[in-house]
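Hello,

Our lab assistant flagged a job as stuck in the queue for most of the afternoon. It eventually completed. Since we weren't sure the result was trustworthy after the delay, we are filing this so someone can double-check. Below is the sequence as submitted and the structure that was eventually returned. Let us know if re-running is recommended.
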Amino acid sequence: LQSQILSTFCDGKSMSTFFIVLRGNQIHRPFAFDVLRDALVDRYKNLARTGVLSKNMEVRDCLDVIREDIRTCGIIDSDDGTLVCDDDEYSDVVAKVSQWCAIVDYFDSMKSRSDFVLWAGPIQTQGFGKIESASVSSPFWTVTALDYFYQELELNNHYLTHPSTNGLPSSLVDSPFGMLKVDTEGDVERLGRVQYSLSSDPDSGSRFALVPSQQEYEPTFCFALPSGSSSSYKHTLALFWEGEDDIDFEYSLRRIGENVIRLLSRLELS
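-- returned structure --
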Protein backbone atom coordinates (compact mmCIF):
# COMPACT_ATOMS: atom_id res chain seq x y z
CA LEU A 1 0.00 0.00 0.00
CA GLN A 2 2.77 2.46 0.94
CA SER A 3 4.63 1.89 -2.33
CA GLN A 4 1.43 2.32 -4.33
CA ILE A 5 0.77 5.67 -2.62
CA LEU A 6 4.32 6.82 -3.37
CA SER A 7 4.08 5.73 -6.99
CA THR A 8 0.68 7.31 -7.60
CA PHE A 9 0.83 10.60 -5.73
CA CYS A 10 4.49 11.58 -5.30
CA ASP A 11 7.02 13.11 -7.66
CA GLY A 12 10.60 11.90 -7.76
CA LYS A 13 11.85 14.52 -5.31
CA SER A 14 9.21 13.50 -2.75
CA MET A 15 10.13 9.83 -3.15
CA SER A 16 13.77 10.66 -2.56
CA THR A 17 12.90 12.70 0.54
CA PHE A 18 10.84 9.82 1.92
CA PHE A 19 13.86 7.53 1.77
CA ILE A 20 16.38 10.09 3.05
CA VAL A 21 14.23 10.83 6.11
CA LEU A 22 13.82 7.16 7.07
CA ARG A 23 17.30 5.89 6.15
CA GLY A 24 18.81 7.52 9.25
CA ASN A 25 17.13 4.87 11.36
CA GLN A 26 18.92 1.55 10.84
CA ILE A 27 15.77 -0.38 11.75
CA HIS A 28 13.59 1.46 9.24
CA ARG A 29 16.19 1.65 6.47
CA PRO A 30 15.49 -1.72 4.77
CA PHE A 31 11.73 -1.11 4.99
CA ALA A 32 12.08 2.38 3.50
CA PHE A 33 14.15 1.08 0.61
CA ASP A 34 11.77 -1.80 -0.12
CA VAL A 35 8.84 0.63 -0.29
CA LEU A 36 10.80 3.04 -2.47
CA ARG A 37 12.07 0.27 -4.76
CA ASP A 38 8.56 -1.08 -5.41
CA ALA A 39 7.22 2.44 -5.99
CA LEU A 40 9.98 3.25 -8.50
CA VAL A 41 9.52 -0.03 -10.35
CA ASP A 42 5.81 0.72 -10.73
CA ARG A 43 6.44 4.35 -11.74
CA TYR A 44 9.05 3.44 -14.37
CA LYS A 45 6.67 0.87 -15.84
CA ASN A 46 3.89 3.47 -16.11
CA LEU A 47 6.20 6.11 -17.58
CA ALA A 48 7.26 3.73 -20.37
CA ARG A 49 3.59 3.38 -21.32
CA THR A 50 2.74 7.10 -21.22
CA GLY A 51 2.03 9.34 -24.21
CA VAL A 52 5.04 10.58 -26.14
CA LEU A 53 7.42 8.46 -24.03
CA SER A 54 5.77 5.23 -25.19
CA LYS A 55 6.39 6.21 -28.83
CA ASN A 56 10.16 6.49 -28.40
CA MET A 57 11.77 3.06 -28.41
CA GLU A 58 14.99 4.20 -26.77
CA VAL A 59 13.12 5.93 -23.93
CA ARG A 60 11.19 2.71 -23.31
CA ASP A 61 14.35 0.59 -23.48
CA CYS A 62 16.24 2.83 -21.04
CA LEU A 63 13.35 2.93 -18.57
CA ASP A 64 13.02 -0.86 -18.78
CA VAL A 65 16.74 -1.44 -18.17
CA ILE A 66 16.88 0.96 -15.21
CA ARG A 67 13.65 -0.46 -13.80
CA GLU A 68 15.11 -3.96 -13.84
CA ASP A 69 18.28 -2.68 -12.12
CA ILE A 70 16.16 -1.11 -9.40
CA ARG A 71 14.04 -4.24 -9.00
CA THR A 72 17.12 -6.39 -8.26
CA CYS A 73 18.59 -4.00 -5.68
CA GLY A 74 18.56 -4.37 -1.93
CA ILE A 75 20.06 -2.80 1.19
CA ILE A 76 22.68 -4.72 3.15
CA ASP A 77 21.83 -4.59 6.84
CA SER A 78 24.97 -2.78 7.96
CA ASP A 79 25.93 0.46 9.65
CA ASP A 80 26.22 2.37 6.38
CA GLY A 81 23.37 0.57 4.60
CA THR A 82 25.31 -0.39 1.46
CA LEU A 83 23.16 -0.77 -1.65
CA VAL A 84 23.65 -3.98 -3.66
CA CYS A 85 22.41 -4.26 -7.25
CA ASP A 86 23.29 -7.66 -8.73
CA ASP A 87 27.09 -7.79 -8.29
CA ASP A 88 27.58 -4.03 -7.87
CA GLU A 89 27.79 -2.28 -4.51
CA TYR A 90 27.12 1.42 -3.87
CA SER A 91 28.14 2.93 -0.57
CA ASP A 92 26.50 6.28 -1.43
CA VAL A 93 22.92 5.03 -1.41
CA VAL A 94 21.42 8.52 -1.29
CA ALA A 95 23.21 9.55 -4.50
CA LYS A 96 21.96 6.47 -6.34
CA VAL A 97 18.39 6.91 -5.09
CA SER A 98 18.49 10.62 -5.98
CA GLN A 99 19.46 9.75 -9.54
CA TRP A 100 16.68 7.19 -9.92
CA CYS A 101 14.15 9.72 -8.61
CA ALA A 102 15.51 12.52 -10.82
CA ILE A 103 14.97 10.29 -13.86
CA VAL A 104 11.30 10.06 -12.83
CA ASP A 105 11.03 13.85 -12.60
CA TYR A 106 12.84 14.38 -15.91
CA PHE A 107 10.54 12.11 -17.89
CA ASP A 108 7.49 13.33 -15.99
CA SER A 109 8.32 16.87 -17.15
CA MET A 110 8.98 15.71 -20.74
CA LYS A 111 5.80 13.65 -21.22
CA SER A 112 3.58 16.74 -21.54
CA ARG A 113 5.88 18.38 -24.11
CA SER A 114 6.22 17.85 -27.84
CA ASP A 115 10.02 17.60 -27.50
CA PHE A 116 12.77 16.53 -25.12
CA VAL A 117 15.28 18.87 -23.47
CA LEU A 118 18.74 17.45 -24.23
CA TRP A 119 20.94 20.16 -22.72
CA ALA A 120 20.56 23.37 -20.73
CA GLY A 121 23.03 25.94 -19.50
CA PRO A 122 24.94 29.14 -20.34
CA ILE A 123 26.69 29.48 -23.66
CA GLN A 124 29.27 32.00 -24.88
CA THR A 125 29.11 33.54 -28.34
CA GLN A 126 32.01 35.08 -30.23
CA GLY A 127 31.45 38.82 -30.27
CA PHE A 128 27.87 38.88 -28.99
CA GLY A 129 28.27 38.15 -25.29
CA LYS A 130 27.23 35.31 -23.05
CA ILE A 131 23.75 33.80 -23.19
CA GLU A 132 23.09 33.03 -19.54
CA SER A 133 20.37 30.41 -19.90
CA ALA A 134 19.73 28.41 -23.06
CA SER A 135 18.28 24.99 -23.73
CA VAL A 136 18.55 22.53 -26.61
CA SER A 137 15.51 20.41 -27.34
CA SER A 138 14.32 18.00 -30.01
CA PRO A 139 11.40 15.69 -30.81
CA PHE A 140 14.07 12.97 -31.02
CA TRP A 141 15.64 11.50 -27.88
CA THR A 142 18.59 9.20 -27.33
CA VAL A 143 20.45 8.63 -24.09
CA THR A 144 23.77 9.36 -25.82
CA ALA A 145 22.49 12.75 -27.03
CA LEU A 146 22.46 13.94 -23.40
CA ASP A 147 26.20 13.29 -23.17
CA TYR A 148 26.91 14.47 -26.71
CA PHE A 149 25.51 17.97 -26.26
CA TYR A 150 26.97 18.25 -22.76
CA GLN A 151 30.40 17.50 -24.21
CA GLU A 152 30.10 19.56 -27.38
CA LEU A 153 28.37 22.64 -25.96
CA GLU A 154 29.95 22.71 -22.51
CA LEU A 155 33.06 20.62 -21.89
CA ASN A 156 34.79 21.14 -25.24
CA ASN A 157 33.28 24.42 -26.40
CA HIS A 158 34.63 27.93 -25.75
CA TYR A 159 32.06 29.88 -27.77
CA LEU A 160 29.74 29.68 -30.77
CA THR A 161 31.37 30.93 -33.96
CA HIS A 162 30.86 30.92 -37.73
CA PRO A 163 32.40 27.85 -39.38
CA SER A 164 35.62 28.35 -41.36
CA THR A 165 34.19 26.54 -44.37
CA ASN A 166 32.62 27.82 -47.58
CA GLY A 167 29.56 25.65 -47.11
CA LEU A 168 28.03 22.97 -44.95
CA PRO A 169 27.14 19.47 -46.20
CA SER A 170 23.63 19.44 -47.63
CA SER A 171 22.86 16.34 -45.56
CA LEU A 172 23.60 18.30 -42.38
CA VAL A 173 21.22 21.18 -43.15
CA ASP A 174 18.54 19.09 -44.83
CA SER A 175 16.00 19.47 -42.02
CA PRO A 176 16.13 20.75 -38.41
CA PHE A 177 16.80 18.24 -35.65
CA GLY A 178 15.59 20.56 -32.90
CA MET A 179 16.20 24.06 -31.57
CA LEU A 180 18.15 26.21 -29.16
CA LYS A 181 15.83 28.38 -27.07
CA VAL A 182 16.24 31.30 -24.66
CA ASP A 183 13.59 32.91 -22.45
CA THR A 184 14.91 35.84 -20.43
CA GLU A 185 14.77 39.38 -21.79
CA GLY A 186 18.55 39.82 -21.71
CA ASP A 187 19.16 36.53 -23.49
CA VAL A 188 16.53 37.31 -26.13
CA GLU A 189 18.36 40.61 -26.80
CA ARG A 190 21.72 38.84 -27.14
CA LEU A 191 20.19 36.17 -29.36
CA GLY A 192 18.77 38.92 -31.55
CA ARG A 193 22.29 40.20 -32.21
CA VAL A 194 23.35 36.64 -33.05
CA GLN A 195 20.43 36.27 -35.46
CA TYR A 196 21.36 39.54 -37.17
CA SER A 197 24.78 38.07 -38.02
CA LEU A 198 23.22 35.08 -39.77
CA SER A 199 21.90 34.59 -43.28
CA SER A 200 18.84 32.47 -44.06
CA ASP A 201 20.44 31.27 -47.32
CA PRO A 202 22.26 27.90 -46.95
CA ASP A 203 24.44 28.89 -49.93
CA SER A 204 25.75 32.01 -48.20
CA GLY A 205 28.75 30.14 -46.82
CA SER A 206 29.87 30.55 -43.24
CA ARG A 207 27.27 33.25 -42.45
CA PHE A 208 24.47 30.66 -42.58
CA ALA A 209 25.36 28.99 -39.29
CA LEU A 210 27.10 29.00 -35.91
CA VAL A 211 29.04 26.03 -34.58
CA PRO A 212 30.91 25.22 -31.35
CA SER A 213 34.48 26.53 -31.46
CA GLN A 214 36.03 23.04 -31.55
CA GLN A 215 33.95 22.25 -34.66
CA GLU A 216 34.96 25.36 -36.58
CA TYR A 217 36.67 23.38 -39.34
CA GLU A 218 34.69 20.12 -39.23
CA PRO A 219 31.12 20.83 -38.10
CA THR A 220 28.92 17.91 -37.11
CA PHE A 221 26.00 20.10 -36.04
CA CYS A 222 25.15 23.77 -36.30
CA PHE A 223 22.65 26.46 -35.32
CA ALA A 224 20.93 28.61 -37.93
CA LEU A 225 17.99 31.00 -38.26
CA PRO A 226 14.62 29.42 -37.50
CA SER A 227 11.77 29.37 -39.96
CA GLY A 228 10.43 32.86 -40.57
CA SER A 229 6.91 31.66 -39.80
CA SER A 230 7.82 30.52 -36.29
CA SER A 231 5.88 32.31 -33.55
CA SER A 232 8.90 31.98 -31.24
CA TYR A 233 11.40 33.32 -33.81
CA LYS A 234 13.00 35.84 -31.44
CA HIS A 235 13.64 33.14 -28.83
CA THR A 236 15.18 30.36 -30.95
CA LEU A 237 17.79 29.12 -33.36
CA ALA A 238 17.23 26.01 -35.44
CA LEU A 239 19.49 23.05 -34.61
CA PHE A 240 20.76 21.00 -37.54
CA TRP A 241 22.27 17.61 -36.74
CA GLU A 242 22.16 14.22 -38.40
CA GLY A 243 21.68 12.57 -35.00
CA GLU A 244 24.85 10.48 -35.06
CA ASP A 245 27.49 10.38 -32.31
CA ASP A 246 30.21 7.98 -31.25
CA ILE A 247 29.29 7.83 -27.55
CA ASP A 248 28.82 4.39 -26.04
CA PHE A 249 25.22 3.55 -25.10
CA GLU A 250 26.18 1.76 -21.89
CA TYR A 251 28.36 4.69 -20.82
CA SER A 252 25.52 7.16 -21.29
CA LEU A 253 23.01 4.87 -19.62
CA ARG A 254 25.21 4.80 -16.51
CA ARG A 255 25.37 8.60 -16.59
CA ILE A 256 21.72 9.39 -17.27
CA GLY A 257 20.97 10.11 -13.61
CA GLU A 258 23.82 12.60 -13.34
CA ASN A 259 22.81 14.24 -16.62
CA VAL A 260 19.14 14.71 -15.73
CA ILE A 261 19.96 16.07 -12.24
CA ARG A 262 22.06 18.77 -13.92
CA LEU A 263 19.34 19.43 -16.49
CA LEU A 264 16.55 19.71 -13.93
CA SER A 265 18.51 22.05 -11.68
CA ARG A 266 19.27 24.37 -14.59
CA LEU A 267 15.72 24.31 -15.94
CA GLU A 268 14.43 25.26 -12.49
CA LEU A 269 16.72 28.30 -12.44
CA SER A 270 15.88 29.45 -15.98
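-- support follow-up --
The delay was a queue issue, not a problem with the job. The result is valid. The chain is about 45% helix and 20% strand. The chain has a mean pLDDT of 88.
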